[in-house]
Design a protein that fits this description.
Elements: E1 5-14, H1 29-33, H2 39-57, E2 68-81, E3 89-102
Antiparallel strand pairs: 1-2, 2-3
Length: about 100
């Protein structure tokens, strides 16, 4: 029995150029936005909506409602089961890393 595990952490920017991997689950909302003919427009609209909502919440020093931008990275953790880098890869978790940019 082989008890070797390897963990891999990947980071991918979620922006208007985001393209999900072919193996990304169909139930992943961000991946679904980035598929199809209108993918880039969908992504731009979503990112604009996120920025607008954050600016609405941070309005005390933001009279024009455009001071801040939200940047998102998709952080994925996978576990590789087996020695010698076998193909038994199991996705463990995906989270969003959020960064706030003060323009």
């Amino acid at each position: 029995m082989n008890n070797e595990f390897a963990f891999h952490i990947k980071s991918l920017r979620f922006d208007e150029n985001y393209r999900p991997a072919d193996s990304t689950r169909l139930t992943t909302n961000f991946a679904n936005l980035a598929r199809g003919e209108s993918r880039q427009e969908n992504l731009r609209n979503t990112l604009r909506m996120i920025d607008n909502r954050f600016n609405d919440l941070a309005n005390w020093d933001n009279p024009k409602g455009n001071r801040y931008a939200v940047e998102l990275d998709i952080i994925s953790v996978e576990m590789n089961i087996g020695a010698n880098g076998g193909d038994d890869v199991f996705p463990l978790i995906e989270i969003l890393k959020t960064s706030i940019v003060d323009r």
